[in-house]
Amino acid sequence: MHALGFEHQMSRIDRDKYLFINWANIKDDLEYNFYMVDDGQVMSVPYDYGSVMHYGAYHFAENPKIPSMVAYNPLFQYTIGNSQQPSFSDILAVNRLYNCTLTFEPKICNWHIKAPAGKRVELKIIKGGECNCYFTSLEINLGKFNSYGMTVCCYYFDNQVVLSEGNLVALRGFIRFDRLAVTLQYRAI
User: Fold this and answer.
1) pLDDT digits (tens, 9 = 90+) for 14-61
2) What is one GO biological process annotated to this record (predicted)?
3) Which pTM does this prediction carry?
4) Which CATH class is domain 9-97?
């Protein structure tokens, strides 16, 4: 996406609203990777933790056991840097920049959970799956369909309960080796 005119998400000028940069843990000669660029292509697309243009939480860390970046919304901490492909908002930004109306359909599994009108969907993540987000994960979008949802891929999410913004939840499974080990319960409330 650099060739298309885009900078990394954590270089956006609105980054500090969404992401804490742990400057004390970034290798001195690599700090430039986190400098904000005010001429980056934002295209009126919200900050996207799931963008293919987002480095992972531990990139450029002096101490590899301490994150260099921390999502202010903890539900998205394991989303950053784990994209398999361009997110919906990445495609939206490219389409807006080049006045393109083509749509992008990923070749992965998609599900929707819809509650009756006026109700919301409550999801309980019973089991968050294996701790290798690159090979198997589940994106849960709770209603902001112009941006990436949270990535569920590890025991950190076990027994977490989340609530949709409206009556629809979109799920997208990234499945490798014919299995997705995430277990959910849901209900309308």
Assistant:
1) 999 999 999 999 999 999 999 998 765 678 888 999 999 999 999 999
2) proteolysis
3) 0.58
4) alpha beta
- Cβ atoms within 10 Å of 77's Cβ, excluding its own: 17
Domain map (residue ranges) of the chain: 9-97, 109-188
Which CATH homologous superfamily contains domain 109-188? Spermadhesin, CUB domain (2.60.120.290)
Closest C-alpha among 99, 98, 51 to residue 71 = 51
- Better-predicted residue by pLDDT, 24 or 7: 24
